[in-house]
User: Which sequence fits this backbone?
């Protein structure tokens, strides 16, 4: 099997922060889909345990997703983002602005750790050693050397892109596949430039453009996964007809019993307390789509474009709020199709979106 020939044409998106579990990935694989574990935020040991957990449950191929830290990002990032003392000051001010809300849940803003806080090299070694079927990357473009190492290990590489320029850069770098992420997507936007405000064009149109580009630039088989707001078979079929080999779905799986979605998060998605989604840097310093809460409305404008520092600053608030089973300060990541998410088995979601 390769990512171009997934039976159902359905991929379980990696969902860092808890929702992705070995059970979810194994179940989706057994149902004829293909699942990605989320390597982001885990320690290498935790990720290794999850990889072993999938092998225990299933012999189906699966993938791992890794966050590319800025130091390993080969994309030509636009100059002009926050840097040095300005960046540190903006992050500190942001932390100060959260003091009252943090105290209300018995927490304090976290320590703003800069740089690679995600064990990039160790996780790369792990996925090569474990020979998982595919590795997808988000937040950056890894070097040709990294992509070559994966290819030599027989591992398909995928880079998340959000517009044509990013797709071109990833194709030039030699990726085996692209995950084309549209504006509708839940969770972080995977822009290769952390300060970019991503393309808002319709996913179907973007997929068609990227498929044409891939055919011209790399007539060898480039796999295209497409992600963003996919919650119905009609939409999945339209995206595949535009040139995607498979649809990558996240939000549609959040309420399944196999997902590790926390209780407050589940209640928020399944209940009537929220009306809409919005895109904000308030939780991590990178743009991401989530349910529009009062916290997001209060802090959206002041949140600096400083990932991963802002992520570390808000982690204690989010954890304390989740532990108290209160959704107020939790990052309720959700795509535009969130109202269609159902508490049904993951295999049912795969069957409902399959080609
Ligand atoms: C809770 C959540 C966590 C996510 N975490 C990741 C991640 O770790 N890595 C990644 O590449 N994408 C991540 N995404 C984005 C997905 O890969 C995908 O682009 C998105 O879920 C598609 O939109 P949808 O949620 O509307 O289906 C996440 C999405 C959600 C909803």
Assistant:
């Amino acid at each position: 099997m390769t990512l171009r020939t997934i039976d159902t044409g359905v991929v379980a998106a990696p969902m860092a922060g808890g929702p992705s579990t070995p059970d979810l990935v194994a179940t989706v694989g057994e149902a004829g889909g293909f699942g990605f574990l989320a390597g982001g935020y885990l320690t290498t040991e935790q990720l290794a345990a999850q990889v072993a957990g999938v092998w225990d449950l299933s012999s189906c191929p699966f993938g791992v997703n890794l966050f590319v830290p800025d130091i390993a990002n080969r994309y030509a990032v636009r100059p002009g983002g926050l840097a040095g003392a300005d960046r540190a000051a903006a992050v500190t001010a942001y932390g100060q602005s959260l003091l009252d809300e943090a105290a209300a849940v018995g927490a304090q803003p976290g320590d703003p750790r800069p740089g690679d806080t995600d064990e990039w090299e160790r996780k790369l070694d792990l996925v090569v050693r474990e020979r998982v079927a595919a590795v997808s990357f988000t937040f950056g473009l890894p070097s040709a050397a990294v992509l070559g190492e994966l290819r030599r290990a027989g591992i398909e590489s995928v880079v998340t892109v959000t517009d044509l320029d990013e797709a071109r850069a990833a194709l030039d770098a030699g990726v085996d596949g692209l995950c084309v992420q549209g504006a509708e997507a839940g969770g972080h936007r995977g822009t290769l430039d952390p300060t970019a405000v991503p393309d808002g064009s319709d996913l179907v149109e973007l997929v068609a453009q990227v498929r044409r580009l891939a055919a011209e630039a790399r007539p060898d088989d480039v796999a295209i996964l497409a992600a963003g707001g996919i919650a119905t078979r009609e939409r999945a079929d339209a995206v595949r007809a535009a040139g995607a080999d498979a649809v990558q779905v996240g939000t549609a799986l959040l309420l399944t019993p196999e997902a590790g979605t926390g209780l407050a998060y589940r209640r928020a998605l399944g209940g009537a307390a929220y009306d809409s989604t919005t895109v904000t840097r308030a939780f991590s310093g990178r743009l991401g789509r989530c349910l529009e809460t009062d916290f997001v409305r209060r802090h959206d404008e002041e949140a600096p474009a400083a990932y991963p520092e802002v992520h570390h600053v808000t982690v204690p608030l989010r954890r304390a709020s989740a532990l108290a089973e209160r959704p107020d300060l939790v990052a309720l990541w959700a795509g535009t199709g969130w109202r269609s998410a159902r508490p049904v088995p993951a295999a049912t979601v795969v069957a409902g979106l399959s080609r």
Summary: The chain is about 40% helix and 15% strand. The chain has a mean pLDDT of 96. The domain at 3-95+117-259+338-353 is CATH 3.20.20.70 (TIM Barrel).
